[in-house]
Structure formats: structure tokens, C-alpha cells
What we know:
This protein is of the alpha/beta class. It contains seven helices and twelve strands. Strand 6 (about 140-150) and strand 7 (about 150-155) form a beta hairpin. The radius of gyration is 17 Å and the shape is globular. Mean pLDDT is about 95; it is low at about 245-250.
Amino acid sequence: MKKILISTIVRNREEKLENYYNQIKEFVEEFSNDFEFSISIYENDSFDNSKEILKSFDYSIFSNNYLQCEDIGTEYYGSFMIDQRVINFANARNKTIENVDLSNYDNIMIIEVDVIYNTDVIRELLYLEDFKDEVKISEPDIYSGILLQNNIPYDLWAIRSHPRQQWGDVNTICTNGIKKYWSTANGVCVYNMKPFIEGLKFSSFSEMHNKHDCDTAVLCEDFRKRGYNKVYINHDLRLYHERPESEGAQ
């Protein structure tokens, strides 16, 4: 039985958390015969009711639950490309793996709080039936669907077709099927756990571009440095972004 660690970071998302939890609960219960799920959530510095809501959830459906809430006084940023914002993202993501024995897990699945999807998306990301039929390799190192807003690819900062690209070009993003990319995230993304077991940490600094960059794009860059270069997007797996009233997660 494969073991999956769900990783999520939260800040000021009280209006999204119930749907976030219910979506996860649905697929955890549906796929529990084939997968064992644990969850690690890190929340910091929320000034809404996120802490209280997170603590109210029933985590008994997970084999292990790592919930950490703290106030450390980081500045709140909206959806802007600011160095300190992506530094905060990477630091927060590292908090989700610091106190976990990663060697117990096969994959880490990053799930963002404000993403809408159904269990068919998760089924393919975990069971890889379409992937193995189309790509004909055993497993990807990084695998996601496509995140849309108003039917347009949303996660363009993380979707990159080639290494020198620093922002995804909507005109070069495939409209269907499975395609290899340089980097992806797209709201729900499954990663091979081996690089993390080897010591990989989340980072916001791109050595390739010599600057701070999208943390999930840097993650793909760092995977590749270690030889994990099978990065794919399945464009038939549609997820949807619903922008909250207060933008930005960290």
C-alpha cells in the first residue's frame, strides 16, 4: 500500500477551509483501500479564524496528523511577486516536512486551500492509469492536472515549458492530453518523496536565474538537479481556482 503525505500551508483562509477539508475527506475515504494518507498542515499569522477552523476538523481519517499553528509576525502580502513572499512560502512549506519521518512515505501531495476539484482528478494523480497508458513509463517524479480560472490556465508563474522561461506562455500550454514540462504546480501536485528523503528542502532562490522565484518552480528546478526530471501535466485533469476576497496565502 502506497503512503501519501498531504502537505498544505494556510494563512487567512477561513472561507475556504471547509471545502478544502471536505474535498480531501472524500478522496481519502474513497481510496483508503489502496493508499494510506497522512496530512501535514502549517498555518501561521492568520488574523481571521483559520486557526480555530483547522483545529476543529476530524483528523481521525488520516494515519498521522501534523497540524502546526503559530504566530511568528511575518508580514502579510497579497498576490504580488515580492521576494519576501516567496521566501515565506518556502519556509512555510518546509514546516510541513520538518517533524515528519519522510522515509515512511512514497509521495508528497501538495494541495492548495483555494482549489476546487473532484475525486476523478485525484484518482488519476494517484493511480496513474492514463499516465502509464499514454507516457508508458512507470511513474512521474512530478505530476499535476491543469488549474483554470475562467477556463484559462491560472498558475502561469509555475507552468514553464523550458528552463529559461520565467513565466508560462498561455499560447504554448497544451489543451489536452499529457505533456512533459519544465515545471508545474497547478493547485494539486504529486511529488516523488525520494528527493526529500535525500535532504531536499523547499527554496525560493533559483540558481538558474540567480534570483528569488516562484517556490514551486524552484522545487522543480531542484528536483532536476538531483536527476528527477519526469515532470508532467495532464491537461484532461481540470481543477479550478476561486480567488478569495483577500488574495494571497502567505
